[in-house]
C-alpha cells in the first residue's frame, strides 16, 4: 500500500503553494509569484492541477460559435496553462493579463498569446474597453488572499453582451469563506439581470491537496468548481 507521505506532493512544492495562499498583502503575493514563475509549471504538474483543462473544455462546450473566431481574454494568465488548453480546443491566440511580471515573461516565451499586459485585478481596471471580448476566463485567480470576488464585475465589463465569463475557484476548507462570498456576488449579478448561469461544474479531483486538513475525505485531493455565465444582451436597470 502507498505510504501516507506518498499521498502528498513534494515538500518544497507544498511550501510554495502554501506561501501563495497565505500571502499577507498584495506586494508579497506578487513577489512570491515572481519567484515561483520559473518553477511554476513543474510544480502544478506535480499537483495534477486540472483547472485549466476543465475550464477550457467547459468554455469550448458552452461557446455558441467556432472557437477560432472568439476573442478571448485570459485573466491571471500566469505562464500560459489556459492558453495551451484553449489552443488544443481550436481557439485562436487569447490576450492575457497577470499581476506578476515574471509570470508574463514566461507566458511571452510560450508564444500562445496575442497580447500580454500587466494588470493587478482588484486594484486596477482591466486594460480593455467595455464589451471587447467574446469570452473572459479567470482560472485559478479567484481565491482567498488573491483576486477579490467583487472584481468579477470588471470581467463582466469587458465581455460583450451575449459573451461568456468562465471562472474557477477551489472548494477546499481554507477557501470556503471566499467561495461563499464569490457565489453571493455571482448570484447578486444574476438577480440584477447582468448575466445568466450557463454551467456550474463541481470537480472532486481539482488538484492534489497539500495537507491533511485540506484534503477531501482523505482522498489526497481538493475539489474545485468551474462556473460559466452568459452576459445578458440588455444592460440591467440600476437598483434604485
UniProtKB/TrEMBL annotation:
<protein>
    <submittedName>
        <fullName>MET27 protein</fullName>
    </submittedName>
</protein>
<dbReference type="Pfam" id="PF13649">
    <property type="entry name" value="Methyltransf_25"/>
</dbReference>
<feature type="domain" description="Methyltransferase">
    <location>
        <begin position="72"/>
        <end position="163"/>
    </location>
</feature>
<dbReference type="InterPro" id="IPR029063">
    <property type="entry name" value="SAM-dependent_MTases_sf"/>
</dbReference>
<dbReference type="InterPro" id="IPR041698">
    <property type="entry name" value="Methyltransf_25"/>
</dbReference>
Amino acid at each position: 500500500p502507498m505510504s501516507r507521505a506518498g499521498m502528498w506532493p513534494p515538500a518544497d512544492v507544498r511550501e510554495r503553494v502554501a506561501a501563495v495562499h497565505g500571502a499577507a498583502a498584495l506586494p508579497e503575493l506578487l513577489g512570491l509569484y515572481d519567484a515561483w514563475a520559473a518553477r511554476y509549471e513543474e510544480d502544478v504538474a506535480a499537483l495534477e492541477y486540472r483547472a485549466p483543462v476543465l475550464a477550457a473544455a467547459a468554455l469550448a462546450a458552452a461557446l455558441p460559435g467556432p472557437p477560432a473566431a472568439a476573442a478571448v481574454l485570459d485573466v491571471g494568465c500566469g505562464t500560459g496553462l489556459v492558453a495551451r488548453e484553449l489552443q488544443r480546443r481550436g481557439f485562436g491566440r487569447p490576450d492575457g493579463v497577470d499581476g506578476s511580471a515574471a509570470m508574463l515573461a514566461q507566458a511571452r516565451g510560450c508564444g500562445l498569446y496575442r497580447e500580454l499586459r500587466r494588470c493587478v485585478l482588484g486594484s486596477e481596471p482591466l486594460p480593455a474597453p467595455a464589451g471587447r471580448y467574446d469570452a473572459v476566463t479567470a482560472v485559478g485567480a479567484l481565491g482567498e488572499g488573491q483576486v477579490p470576488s467583487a472584481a468579477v464585475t470588471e470581467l463582466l465589463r469587458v465581455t460583450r453582451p451575449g459573451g461568456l465569463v468562465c471562472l474557477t475557484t477551489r472548494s477546499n476548507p481554507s477557501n470556503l469563506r471566499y467561495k461563499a462570498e464569490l457565489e453571493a456576488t455571482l448570484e447578486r449579478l444574476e438577480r440584477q439581470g447582468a448575466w445568466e448561469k450557463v454551467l456550474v461544474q463541481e470537480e472532486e479531483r481539482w488538484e492534489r491537496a497539500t495537507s491533511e486538513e485540506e484534503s477531501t475525505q482523505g482522498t489526497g485531493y481538493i475539489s474545485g468548481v468551474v462556473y460559466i455565465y452568459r452576459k445578458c444582451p440588455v444592460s440591467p436597470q440600476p437598483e434604485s
